[in-house]
Amino acid sequence: MNPTLKIAALPALVLAFASGAHAAGSHGGGHHGGNVIGEPGNAGNVSRTVEVTMRDNYYEPESIHVQRGETIRFKVTNEGGLVHEFNIGTADMHEAHQDEMQMMVEHGVLKGDHIDHEMMNMDMGNGHSMKHDDPNSVLMEPGESREIIWKFTNATDLEFACNVPGHYQAGMYGDIKIDSTVAAKDGAEGESDSESVQ
Amino acid sequence: MNKGFLLTILAGLLPLTLLAGEYDISVDRVQIDTGDFVKEGIGYNGASPGPVLRFQEGEEVTINVTNNLDEMTSIHWHGLILPFEQDGVPGISFPGIKPGETFTYKFPVVQNGTYWFHSHSGFQEPNGAYGAIVIEPEGREPFRYDREYVVQLTDKHPHSGDRIMRNLKMSADYYNRQQQTVGDFFSESAEKGFMVTLMDRMMWGDMRMMKADIEDVQGFTGLINGKGPEQNWLGLFKPGERVRLRFINSSAMTYFDIRIPGLEMTVVQADGNNVQPVNVDEFRIGVAETYDVIVHIKDEEAYTIFAESMGRSGYARGTLAPEDGMTAEVPELRQAPLLTMADMGGHMDHGGMDHGDMNEDDMAGMDSGDMAMGAEVDHGAMGHGSMDHGDDASLPEDPFYAKGSGLVPTASNGGKFLSYSDLKAQKPLYEDREPTREIELRLTGNMERYEWSINGTKYEDADPIVLQYGERVRFKFVNETMMTHPMHLHGMWSILEVGEGKWNPLKHVISVAPATTVYMETEVDAPGEWAFHCHLSYHAASGMFRKIVVEGGPDSTVAEGKLSGKQGGES
């Protein structure tokens, strides 16, 4: 993209991000109370670690079981060839976030296997930026690995999803199944419980 | 077929065994019933379309093709990467298959995705000789789905291919029913002024073209998997399922604009190659292209698959439904687009405007006053009756159409219409490198005589294009005609230049819109002799066709021995 064009388009993008976040509530943790999807967890309360591998364009595993109240450390690694996201939220939240990610693509922040961090983190002078640093999500280039510590409270109908445009629709999401009756057990639910894959 | 299928399954159970399947195909005279008319045609294994061939990536296939016709035949495996002797083009790859004979194709399957096969002899393909190929991948695909359907489109015409060709040669507008009439002339004159309208008509007349000349051959019935709109092909699903639709355009001449009202489609594959998924409301499929989309259907409703021809002279229709008998509304055809001055592009330089009796005042009165500049937009000629003329912001844009073109598609719901510029390879196959040289191919034609050519030369008068094994050639297509040409290179991938470097997508058909220049690059990695042509049946047959000779390579004797040979391929 033409650099001049890119800069000129920035204010519009920031504006859209700001309004999008308020209206649609896609970024769970900070803006509107953790109860909807849970809340950032403390390292001291972590009961277990779930390793999640991101590939093109799917996760391993494709569904995860947690206990209500459990705090889990997700160790997420991008072993694909493209940028991917691991984001904990409801289907509606993911859908709203996808519009924002679409804008990141259209404005050249997100390009195939590359994230323009400088542009993404640019301070627009009004406290807004396109930073992608919410505690319920990580956005990574190929080869990167990061952690999320998350406490699952009374949330239901949660999914982990990649909201890079098209990836969710291609099938890059999985269910987080929250169990409130049985005591916590170790480990993620394996492929046995995943949706049919062809 | 059954036997071959069994063998394939057996091979799957015995991992140490080489995957190998044997398939039998007969080429037969068949009846084709479109719901509008019944026509004798040509099919495979007793039907048109023929069977869906299901291969496994890595499989070694053996295909016995028996010709039950009283004329020569052939099968070309469209989009498959294979040794050139197996490519099925009479006069280039092999002599063809005589009546009563069985020819055995044998080749390794080195790719996966959605492809198709068709006769490369005479007009057997428009007469019904086509089928689908589905190749299952070795590994996991970068998307998932619960069920899948082939959705193979064609434009079945009540006339045979030979008759259509004869009629087109006699009168190029024989099948063009949407010509503008004298009545149109007077109503447009009242609206825009007599001189403007007269000038407009005179210029188009000079080009031997008509604004409505988007589809050479109208009067067809659009079919999905052999079924006409009334016969309504049905794909069943269970609510909540993700369904993969493998769209294949096997038409002789017709581009389709495809939508499923109420459903977003995620394009995951183009021409058999995975692309980074892109969500769309509608897409245009050129002749011989394939697009795979995934739809997620959550409710217990029926949905219409609606495929309007680009010139809006016909449509194909099918239904996705949770149970048999359910249907959804079938939309009306939208208004036919008209070509604009932008679509005539280069023609402006060739004397089209040389009307000396025009004075300055007349020019000033035209809202297309800038047309003397060459390739500017002619708002007055925009064919969309409801469009407010002169409002630039309202003009849809797509870098793969001339600026101001009347052909730029828009989604019927105002949403996203797929562009070539949205296609990015999911995983680059080749390392990105500078091309070693560029070859310019002007797409040319004389509409009045219905002659189509490349660089002004018809196939029968042209020398082959000689490439060297190992080079990366950049082809520059310059479309000097007012038709859209789907250019198909056999045997090697066409890497479409969309400005994304290593992510430029791999295709086997590159559609080139009127008055545009489109680039593609090819890694010359397949020795032998290959066909390269416009995939519109009657354009290929009337000369828009070349033989490609690839010299050198691992099996260098093959190409060199035949270099001096005359061109003799059939389209």
From TrEMBL, chain A:
Q: What residue stretches are annotated with the EfeO-type cupredoxin-like domain?
A: 46-90
Matching entries from InterPro entries are given as: Cu-binding_ET (IPR050845), Cupredoxin (IPR008972), EfeO_Cupredoxin (IPR028096)
Print the keywords alphabetically.
Copper, Metal-binding, Signal
- This chain belongs to which protein, by name? Copper-binding protein
Q: Quick one: signal sequence residues? A: 1-23
What Gene Ontology terms describe what this protein does at the molecular function level?
metal ion binding
PANTHER family documented for this protein: AURACYANIN-B (PTHR38439), COPPER-RESISTANT CUPROPROTEIN COPI (PTHR38439:SF3)
Q: Name one Pfam family in it.
A: Cupredoxin_1
**Region Disordered, annotated ranges:** 24-44
Keyword Metal-binding among record annotations: yes
Gly residues bias located where?
A: 26-36
Which Gene3D superfamilies does this UniProt record tie to the protein?
Cupredoxins - blue copper proteins
Keyword Transmembrane helix on entry: no
Automatic annotation (TrEMBL), chain B:
One family name in Pfam for this protein: Cu-oxidase_3
Source domain of life: Bacteria
- InterPro entries given for it? Cu-oxidase-like_N (IPR011707), Cu-oxidase_2nd (IPR001117), Cu-oxidase_C (IPR011706), Cu-oxidase_fam (IPR045087), Cu-R_CopA (IPR006376), Cu_oxidase_CS (IPR033138), Cu_oxidase_Cu_BS (IPR002355), Cupredoxin (IPR008972)
Species: Marinobacter lipolyticus SM19
Sorted keywords for this record are: Copper, Metal-binding, Oxidoreductase
Protein name stated in the entry: CopA family copper-resistance protein
Q: Which Gene Ontology cellular component annotation is one that this UniProt entry carries?
A: periplasmic space
Q: Coiled-coil annotation: which residues?
A: none
Q: Which residues form the Plastocyanin-like domain?
A: 33-138, 221-311, 433-551
Give GO terms: molecular function aspect only. Answer: copper ion binding; oxidoreductase activity
Q: Does the keyword Metal-binding apply?
A: yes
